[in-house]
Amino acid sequence: MSRNEVLKEINEIFIDTLDNQEIVLDESTQAADIDQWDSLMHVLLVDAMEKHFDIRFKSGEIQNWKNVGEIIDSIDQKSNN
Amino acid sequence: MKNFIQLKKNLKKDFTDLRDIKVALLGDTATQFLKQALKGLGHDYGIHLNIWEADFNQIERQVLDPSSELYAFEPEIVILFQSSHKLLSKYNKTTSDQHLSFAENQINAIEDLYANITDNIKAEIIYYNYPEIDDSVFGNYANKAESSFLFQLRKLNYELMLLAAKKPSLFLCDLSSIQNQIGKASLFNPSVYINTEMVLGIDALPQIAARTISIINGLKGKIKKCLILDLDNTTWGGIIGDDGIENIEVGSLGIGKAFSEFQQWVKKLKNRGIIIAVCSKNTESVAKEPFEKHPEMVLRLEDISVFVANWENKADNIRQIQQILNIGFDSMVFLDDNPFERNIVRENLPDVLVPELPEDPANYLEYLYGLNLFETTSFSGEDAKRTKLYQIEAERVKAHKKFTNEDDFLKNLAMTSKVEPFTPFNTPRIAQLSQRSNQFNLRTVRYSESDVEQMANSEDYATFSFTLEDRFGDNGLICAIILQKEDPKTWFIDTWFMSCRVLKRGMENFVLNTIVTFAKENNFDFLKGEYIPTPKNKLVENHYKDLGFEYQKPYYILDVNEYADKKSHITKQETK
Q1: Is residue B402's pLDDT more than 70?
Q2: Are the CB atoms for B429 and B382 separated by under 8 Å?
Q3: Which residue of A63, B13, B121, B311 is most buried, as measured by CB atoms within 10 A?
Q4: Does B191 contact A63 at a Cβ distance shorter than 8 Å?
């Protein structure tokens, strides 16, 4: 799956989980850019992404992503293995 | 069942017209998701859980301080969630010489919390028991080593049950049982725990919320009272009309085992006080035959309160069952293997709960266990007798038909009633009726066992309980009155509820005669009544008016000095 396809799917997950149709993500989007994306919501986003891509993030990763691009890095890395 | 994200979306819906219930939620781990799950699922059940959430890990501070926010909020329900993880870390910090008494110390601390809460406010307490964590320090030997964590945790769960059995306002939500059902991997997600201090897995939240809300609903009187069974391929395997009694499947062989075990479950429910009814498309005599003659049937005709077998549509038949039993459709569960019948009932009687039985009868029981259909918040000896009572009611209906004159019929019943104040013996039954009575209930104020106990011992209240016996049998305790001293001349009728199975027997007149006599003997002049309408108590809308009370908006007043005893065919039983 290309990075762009992953981005699109993550975008859908964000829309559904945060219940906000207007979210448009790009690789540089950060938590601070989206109102509802707080630490609690982050847990739900992680859970939804893990289910969707059938992967497990490490606890260390979850806390250290700086932007959506780094989330895609993590997903890429796991799906390619 | 909806997932957590779907429940969360409910939070944006309109809660304004829903029944408001004030709930305090206190946890030793973060509880935000649990709160959202409870509130979201509440919307689907038609209730607005107005939840005050304590700050993280504030249980003791909130409970022990009488001026805390918890008490200022005045919740009706207090949910205490102390997690197995915090329990384990407490255990880890105690020295090994204290491990033997670990559970005991914990249970004392919990009892202390309970005492503090109930001293400060009138609330019911829901406490989550402890899902198991096996720290594997002892291996299987933990079961033999009393000081192991596993031993102490299980002991604590057992002690909690003993405590709950003693404390009328303490209800356990069985988190441990949920973990057994869905597995530890779903109940607990280590990465969520590490990142958020929340111990409940996201996929487990809807189930935990459902179990919690079923306790709350039970406390508010919303419970299932009746199980209606289809017969062919639901109660036994095969079709009695086609296969004949020798060929239906029930008993120890093959799939028959599934039906036998299903029937054993139904029998236990019946013994607990759930009313069992049959609704089957069959010729009645053919449908009854297995109950009478099949050696391996567990259920017998005497277990069934109402037996309806004919070729009419099932929705109409369930309406008929409802009329005989006189209970709400929302307290009925209908089990049928046929999706067509299920849908007819769902469409016509949306309040009846119709589970989507699995196709394979082998899966019936596990599926039904998981639904937790028959929550209750009380249990009394009377419950077990209920089937008999409804059968007797059916006989009475037959007898009634023989008398054209109402008076003759009532006289012929030879009714007697035992009148008593509330006592420790009848308290559980009174609390239970208070939770269950919907139709003949003037104010529908629900009282728990501890409330009943308090009023029984208070100078400001006079309490009356009534039984009703007749030549067909004993109905047991069927009516309660609570009078509150409003001023030196007036008793306010705080509570008047009656079981609907004794309607039209002149019980109302007998009860009023009794309390008027009591008021006169104590030199009171007035009885003051109130009718608070609910969706279910229209039956008693004109109750006080019909009894001769004068309407002085919004109350009804009766001057007892001008009262002449009303006609009644019930005689008072002499008490020793």
Answers
A1: no
A2: yes
A3: B121
A4: no
pLDDT at B413: 83
Q: Does position B403 have pLDDT exceeding 70, yes or no?
A: no
The residue of B11, B194, B195 whose CB has the most chain A CBs within 10 angstroms, and thus the best one to mutate to test that interface, is B195
HEC-encoded secondary structure of B25-47? EEECCCCHHHHHHHHHHHHHCCE
Q: Provide the residue range defining the domain that includes A39.
A: 3-80
Question: How far is Cα B364 from Cα B548, in angstroms, rounded to an integer?
Answer: 54
**B401: pLDDT confidence band, cut at 50, 70 and 90?**
low
According to CATH, the topology of domain B4-219 is: Rossmann fold (3.40.50)
**B411 Cβ contact partners less than 8 Å away, ≥ 6 residues apart:** B569
Let me know if domain B404-572 sits in CATH 2.170.120.30. Answer: no
CB contact under 8 A, A19 and B8: yes
Q: Give the CATH class of B226-371.
A: alpha beta
pLDDT digits 0-9 by tens, B490-548 = 999 999 999 877 877 889 999 999 999 999 999 999 999 999 998 888 889 999 999 99
The pLDDT, as a whole number, for residue B326 is 85
Tell me if B226-371 shares its fold with B404-572.
no
- Our CA-based measurement puts residue B113 at a distance from the nearest CA of chain A, in whole angstroms, of 29
Among residues B199, B193, B217, which one has the least CA distance to residue B128?
Answer: B199
Answer whether A62 sits within 8 Å of B4, measured CB to CB: no
pLDDT averaged over every residue in chain B: 92
| Interface pTM, i.e. ipTM | 0.89
Strand order in the sheet with B124-128: B47-53, B19-27, B77-81, B124-128, B170-173
**Residue B397: which residues within 8 A CB-CB, separation 6 or more?**
B324
Q: Tell me the two tokens of residue B307.
A: 């037996």
Q: Is the pLDDT of residue A44 over 70?
A: yes
| Token digits of residue B502 | 């004794």
Give the pLDDT confidence score for residue B59 in this predicted structure.
94
3-state SS assignment for residue B235: coil
- Is 60 exceeded by the pLDDT of residue B576? no
In the numeric block, which tokens belong to residue B270? 């019946």
Chain B closest-CA separation from residue A59 CA (Å) = 6
Please tell me chain B's helix, strand, coil percentages from 3-state DSSP, rounded to the nearest 5: 45, 20, 35
- B323-346: average pLDDT: 92
Give chain A's domain count: 1
Q: Where are the domains of chain B?
A: 4-219, 226-371, 404-572
**Angle between the A3-18 and A39-53 helix axes, to the nearest 10 degrees?**
130
Residue B281's DSSP bridge partners are: B310
The token duo for B178 is 């949920």
Q: pLDDT tens digits, residue range B418-437?
A: 999 999 889 988 998 898 88
- In angstroms, the first-to-last Cα distance of chain B is 55
pLDDT in tens, B274-332: 999 999 998 899 999 999 999 999 999 999 999 999 988 899 999 989 988 888 999 99
Q: Per the CB < 8 Å rule, is A44 touching B4?
A: yes
From chain A, pick out residues whose CB is under 8 angstroms from the CB of B33: 40
